[in-house]
C-alpha cells in the first residue's frame, strides 16, 4: 500500500481517515522498540500526574498501564486525560 491511511475510534465513533506520513509499518523489527520507548515516556507522565489514580485493591500490586480504566479516575475524558498528561 503506497498511501496508508488510519482511522481512530473515539467514544465509539469512527473518525475521518487521515493519511499516515511517518512511522513504522506493522512487522518492522524496529516497531517493538519504538513502542516501548513511547510507552515508557507515557508511563512516566501518568505516574507524575496527580489527577490519575490507581484503583485501590486489597492486594499490593504495581500500577499497570494495560487497562486504562483501572488507573484513570472516573471523571477523566479522553481529551481531559491527554491535557492532564501534557501539562
For the biggest β-sheet, the strand order reads 1-4
Tally of separate domains: 1
Strand content: 5-15%
The DSSP helix count reads 3
Q: Between the first and last Cα atoms, what is the distance in angstroms? A: 37 Å
* Major beta-sheet overview: 2 strands, antiparallel
User: What is the helix/strand order?
Assistant: EEEEHHH
Strand-pairing-aware structural class: alpha+beta
Helix content: 25-40%
Provide the low-confidence segments as ranges: 66-76
Mean pLDDT over the full residue set? 71
Task: Tell me the radius of gyration.
Answer: 16 Å
Protein name: Reverse transcriptase domain-containing protein
Describe the structure.
It contains three helices and four strands. The chain has 87 residues and is α+β, with helices and mostly antiparallel strands. It has one domain (5-85). Strands 1-4 form a two-stranded antiparallel sheet. Strands 2-3 form a two-stranded antiparallel sheet. The longest helix is centred in the middle third of the chain and has 18 residues, at 31-48. It is extended. Residues 66-76 have low confidence and may be disordered.
Amino acid at each position: 500500500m503506497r498511501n496508508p491511511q488510519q482511522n481512530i475510534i473515539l467514544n465509539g465513533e469512527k473518525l475521518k481517515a487521515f493519511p499516515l506520513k511517518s512511522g513504522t509499518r506493522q512487522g518492522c523489527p524496529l516497531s517493538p522498540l519504538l513502542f516501548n520507548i513511547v510507552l515508557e515516556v507515557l508511563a512516566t507522565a501518568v505516574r507524575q500526574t496527580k489527577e490519575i489514580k490507581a484503583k485501590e485493591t486489597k492486594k499490593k500490586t504495581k500500577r499497570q498501564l494495560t487497562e486504562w480504566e483501572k488507573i484513570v479516575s472516573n471523571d477523566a475524558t479522553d481529551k481531559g486525560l491527554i491535557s492532564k498528561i501534557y501539562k
